[in-house]
TrEMBL record:
Keywords: Endoplasmic reticulum, Glycosyltransferase, Membrane, Signal, Transferase, Transmembrane, Transmembrane helix. InterPro entries: Glyco_trans_ALG6/ALG8. It is a multi-pass membrane protein. Its main location: endoplasmic reticulum. Dolichyl pyrophosphate Man9GlcNAc2 alpha-1,3-glucosyltransferase that operates in the biosynthetic pathway of dolichol-linked oligosaccharides, the glycan precursors employed in protein asparagine (N)-glycosylation. The assembly of dolichol-linked oligosaccharides begins on the cytosolic side of the endoplasmic reticulum membrane and finishes in its lumen. The sequential addition of sugars to dolichol pyrophosphate produces dolichol-linked oligosaccharides containing fourteen sugars, including two GlcNAcs, nine mannoses and three glucoses. One of its GO terms (molecular function) is dolichyl pyrophosphate Man9GlcNAc2 alpha-1,3-glucosyltransferase activity. It comes from Chaetorhynchus papuensis. Pfam families: Alg6_Alg8 (PF03155). Pathway: Protein modification; protein glycosylation. This is Alpha-1,3-glucosyltransferase. It is an enzyme of class 2 (transferase). The gene is Alg6.
Length: 524
């Protein structure tokens, strides 16, 4: 009972923080003609409730795709319809066709916020709790609660879910998808491969950016099939997995499967490659300026205007090639030596490769890397905490635009304090603590500074924190030069990108030099 009491307190604290952050104004409030992301989700309810399914993704007189047209997978649309049905029962004005555009009221805000907490409580938080209880290292009652507290208090997800969006991110885009992906990880950890496949297919049909995590799932399950032997049990498992995936996708896409043009239009909305390498969002605005995304293409664009040098098709090919090459080492290792530990690290590495090098990356996509990092915070608490702090810092320009400076200034140090208290991260900087023992042994005799490695790592961490702190203060308090209006946002993006590149190298080193056979463990 004691462990559940501690976990209840943890969940209550996490929900309290989320509610406090959500009390501010939402993104785009009172700013016509688009009104922001909050209005996008309300508009999707309006469209899905009032129009037949065949019109949801098409431009018509009743569905202007230039005004927050639906561009997420079918499960998002179905969820919009369900919430719209409930909204209609409460107040028909909330989803009235055409006349509800830009609707804002306190009761409607309460409705939207409530759906956030329902999504958290039904999908994401239970998955986090069960994951923490499943960890081998958390046999002590206190450990599961502290691990869950660190994951649930990760500021990046809280600030975007409950501050920037307040509604759509958690109820529509990220939380259900990430929660379902986490359920899939839990299923795979218990060898429930078919249930895990269903859960991940649902995640992918909720948010197309779950493609960031698709290759580790594919390679891990394929590796299990190879390990069992493709002439026996492995072939049977492969056939079952293929059938499960096909049936899951068929069920999600059934209403659109009667017409090939319907399917193609949905795919065009989900993957608008004609927008170019940097156009992660349909509408250009200061928030979505490509120079504010902390990936390699936007950072390089500070020096080389890639979109002026390369054609859109060449940009696409280059992006695909670099992304594929950066994914390859981790995916090959996972396929050849499938293990749950390698699977979790591959989730991080592959998602980070997608964020850094892929096509049309949005600044909020870093959360698709951060949540897998949360899953290994018990294994490498120092590096995981460092990464999660940098990922939150990379969102700073967006958070400042939405008036979330106070929330950022409170939740980020609080998260660091919780991690320091829970894991004593500054004491876990040795090569062994950072899972680099095998790598350090391979370099023994060649790199003399490995003896000073813990001190060097702690120094770099403190330097990184200082740099992020200074840039945060400058971004919030100092007006930029008139000739360089984006100076601080670009600085934040470039500094974050450099961090992420080093983290990518680190995670790949851990994966490739991991010689321990942990495949038989349920959870590492």
């Amino acid at each position: 009972m004691e462990k559940w009491s501690l976990m209840s307190i943890t969940v209550l604290l996490a929900l309290t923080v989320r509610w406090a952050v959500s009390l501010g104004s939402y993104s785009g409030a009172g700013k016509p003609p688009m009104y922001g992301d909050y209005e996008a989700q309300r508009h999707w309810q309006e469209i899905t409730y009032n129009l037949p399914i065949r019109q949801w993704y098409f431009n018509t007189s009743d569905n202007n795709l230039l005004y927050w047209g639906l561009d997420y997978p079918p499960l998002t649309a179905y969820h919009s319809f369900v919430c719209a049905y409930i909204a209609k029962l409460i107040n028909p004005d909330w989803v009235a066709l055409h006349t509800s555009r830009g609707y804002e009221s306190q009761p409607h805000k309460l409705f939207m916020r409530t759906t956030v907490f329902v999504a958290d409580l039904l999908v994401y938080i239970p998955a986090v709790i069960l994951y923490c209880f499943s960890l081998k290292e958390t046999s002590a009652k206190k450990k599961a609660s502290t691990c869950a507290l660190c994951i649930l208090l990760y500021p990046g997800l809280i600030l975007i879910d409950h501050g920037h969006f307040q509604y759509p991110s958690s109820a529509w885009k990220l939380i259900p998808a990430l929660g379902l992906a986490l359920w899939a990880v839990l299923c795979l950890s218990h060898d429930w491969d078919l249930l895990g496949s269903v859960a991940f297919c649902l995640a992918l049909n909720y948010k197309q950016m779950e493609l960031y995590h698709s290759l580790p799932f594919f390679c891990y399950l394929l590796g299990k099939c190879f390990k069992k032997g493709l002439k026996g049990k492995g072939l049977v498992l492969l056939a079952k997995l293929a059938g499960t995936v096909l049936l899951s996708f068929a069920a999600c896409w059934l209403p659109f499967g009667t017409d090939v043009e319907q399917i193609m239009q949905v795919l065009r909305r989900l993957f608008p490659i004609d927008r170019g390498l940097f156009e992660a969002c349909m509408f250009s605005s200061p928030t979505h300026c490509p120079d504010k995304v902390a990936n390699i293409w936007c950072s390089l664009s500070v020096l080389i205007k890639i979109k002026n040098v390369l054609s859109p098709r060449t940009q696409l090919k280059l992006s695909f090639a670099v992304t594929f090459l950066s994914l390859l080492p981790a995916c090959i290792k996972l396929t050849v030596q499938p293990s749950l530990r390698g699977f979790k690290f591959a989730l991080v590495s592959c998602a980070l490769s997608f964020f850094l090098f892929s096509f049309q990356v949005h600044e909020k996509s870093i959360l698709l890397v951060s949540v897998p990092v949360c899953l290994i915070i018990n294994e490498i608490p120092f590096m995981a905490t460092w990464f999660l702090l940098v990922s939150t810092f990379s969102l700073l320009p967006l958070l400042l635009k939405d008036g979330l400076l106070l929330a950022y200034a409170v939740t980020t140090p609080a998260f660091l304090a919780v991690c320091l208290a829970s894991f004593s991260i500054l004491e876990k900087t040795s090569a062994e603590d950072l899972q680099l023992k095998a790598f350090s042994l391979s370099l023994k005799g060649y790199v003399s500074w490995f003896k000073s490695f813990p001190r060097i790592v702690r120094g770099l961490f403190l330097l990184s924190l200082s740099l992020m702190g200074v840039l945060s203060v400058l971004s919030a308090a100092v007006p930029p030069p008139q000739s360089l209006p984006d100076l601080f946002p670009v600085a934040v993006a470039v500094v974050s990108c450099l961090h992420f590149l080093l983290f990518l190298v680190y995670f790949n080193v851990v994966i490739l030099w991991d010689s321990k056979n942990r495949g038989q463990k349920k959870m590492s």
